[in-house]
Amino acid sequence: xxxxxxxxxxxxxxxxxxxxxxxxxxxxxxxxxxxxxxxxxxxxxxxxxxxxxxxxxxxxxxxxxxxxxxxxxxxxxxxxxxxxxxxxxxxxxxxxxxxxxxxxxxxxxxxxxxxxxxxxxxxxxxxxxxxxxxxxxxxxxxxxxxxxxxxxxxxxxxxxxxxxxxxxxxxxxxxxxxxxxxxxxxxxxxxxxxxxxxxxxxxxxxxxxxxxxxxxxxxxxxxxxxxxxxxxxxxxxxxxxxxxxxxxxxxxxxxxxxxxxxxxxxxxxxxxxxxxxxxxxxxxxxxxxxxxxxxxxxxxxxxxxxxxxxxxxxxxxxxxxxxxxxxxxxxxxxxxxxxxxxxxxxxxxxxxxxxxxxxxx
Length: 361
Prior knowledge:
The chain is an all-alpha fold. Helix content is 70%, strand content 0%.
């Protein structure tokens, strides 16, 4: 652990707390998880071996490269490529993109090593967006230490640039990670910090309010939850001319997130209403999140004691996640299998539970 921390700090990364890192190391040792690309590189450097020596890659460990000169053409290229990666994530899921996005980040960091670059601010902005996106990709695949590491790195880029909108969005993403970890007070604090930045677009306000609603649900604060959901839906319904970061935040998306929080509040009927509305109006091109919406809707039906509808929607979710793999959707389907245990003697439920027991993406 000491060697990993020392190696990471040389590259400007701060690893998670010791308790979290210890659990992560144990999972690697027990082969329950595979280190992500960043940790593969850090392990190889800390142990003075190649990634190939450790069974991670065929290529030898890279040596430190000199600063890479960059101009407007490279910035434009990386910006275009990122937009394509974001769209690919929505269509086919996150698991295929982590490695290539991290390679682009390495290129950006090499360019930033040229401290007199005429496009330094543009590179910091790109660094924020790539690092935040890399954090999201790792989060969607259940790699939470890597997700936290890259999201903190994204915040470093945003603060170096002094851009309040990038800072707000990255604080919101850290709030989202805290919600997934069950840290309600941290999630609420970070969402409120995101909302304090000025100026904010309606889309940025919407995603931060989404996070407030999720935090209030974890705290069992119904009033705070409902107020945040209503305000968030109002913001999502406004035209946002600067939707570069929040283009995914449609009314349907906000209802899906509110439905998930309603499940945490043990309000399955409200969750069904929100999630079914989201399903009915789901926009094309956002297939990964649609699979998650369906899995959550099936879970809501199961919690509302409607196993028929849970199985029907659950089958749709299995079909959808096979096209856009996501660890979050798979985890939701596994939880659905457990929720349906009381109905296990029913043929349709038994068939569905057997399906989910198999290799769901």
